[in-house]
Amino acid sequence: MTRVLVVEDDPQLVRALVINMRARRYGVDAAPDGATALRLAAARQPDVVMLDLGLPDMDGIEVIRALRGWSRVPILVLSARLGSAEKVAALDAGADDYVTKPFSMDELMARLRAAVRRTEESVPAAGTIRVETAGFTIDLLAKRVVRDGRDVRLTPTEWQLLEILVARPGHLVTQQHLLREVWGVSRSNRTNYLRVYMAQLRRKLEADPAHPRHLITEAGMGYRFET
Ligand code: CA
Fold first, then answer.
1. What's the confidence (pLDDT) of residue 207?
2. Are residues 141 and 78 in the same domain?
């Protein structure tokens, strides 16, 4: 069952959304504010987040940024705000789509189906599901890394980074590309995120993290995965 997290402080709208989505066999959780939304997103791992930007405790943009710190879940923004600056800010922060209130329920459900379809399409193609190196094996479909016969536990963000890098062995992947794909930001002012997460990945995967053989830094440019 596809699970949707609805983040909205208008109880009447929440009721309408829940009724419509349950009728279409979605599993629905609802959060009336940003703090509850972040807690439920971590606890329930929804397949899609539907997010109102005007929340009582924090700006919806902050919720998007916080989610993008660890999750690639599709985020569909619902907002009464019409300004294109708001729209751009939401998309820059990592939202996937935007619906302006008032909207028709049919349109919203169509956007929801599209968001779900995009996640299903991002499953890696057959033939690229298993990557072997001398030190560790990655099973992309099972989301499993085995090193010296033991499972290595990776966080969702570490997984995303690793998946992107191993998809093109031997090729440079730019910092900007990784930031955009993993955190939904296009500017390169967050390269410290990348350094922190790459250091964690090396500690977990490389025999000598100070002299990596598989997760290579291209100074000032990006990273490269070598089998
Ligand atoms: Ca609101």
1. 93
2. no
Please report, for the domain that includes residue 100, its CATH number.
3.40.50.2300
Distance CA(203)–CA(79), nearest Å, equals 42
- Decide if 73 is inside a domain: yes
By residue range, what is the domain housing residue 212? 130-225
Q: pLDDT means per 10 residues in the chain (227 residues)?
A: 95 96 96 96 92 95 90 88 76 84 91 81 58 90 89 88 86 82 70 88 94 90 88
> Quick one: 18 and 71 in the same domain?
yes
- State the distance from the centre of ligand 1 to the C-alpha of 56, rounded, in angstroms: 7
Contact 62, 35 (CB under 8 A): no
Q: Which pLDDT value is given to residue 188?
A: 58
In this prediction the pTM is 0.57
Please indicate, yes or no, whether residues 115 and 143 belong to a single structural domain of this protein.
no
The predicted structure's pLDDT at residue 170: 80
In what helix (H) or strand (E) does residue 111 lie, and over which residues does it extend?
Answer: helix 105-121
Domain boundary among 68, 98, 119: 119
7 and 110 fall within a common domain:
yes
Chain-centroid distance of CA 78 in Å reads 18
Q: Determine the distance separating the centroid of ligand 1 and the alpha carbon of 46, expressed in angstroms.
A: 21
| 15 CA from centroid of ligand 1 (Å) | 14
Number of CB atoms found within 10 A of residue 170's CB: 9
Q: For ligand 1, an ion, list residues with CB under 5 A.
A: 9, 52, 54
Q: Ligand 1: distance of its center to the CA of 52 in Å? A: 6
Confidence (pLDDT) at 126: 47
Which residues are bridge partners to 74 per DSSP? none
Q: Are residues 114 and 9 in the same domain?
A: yes
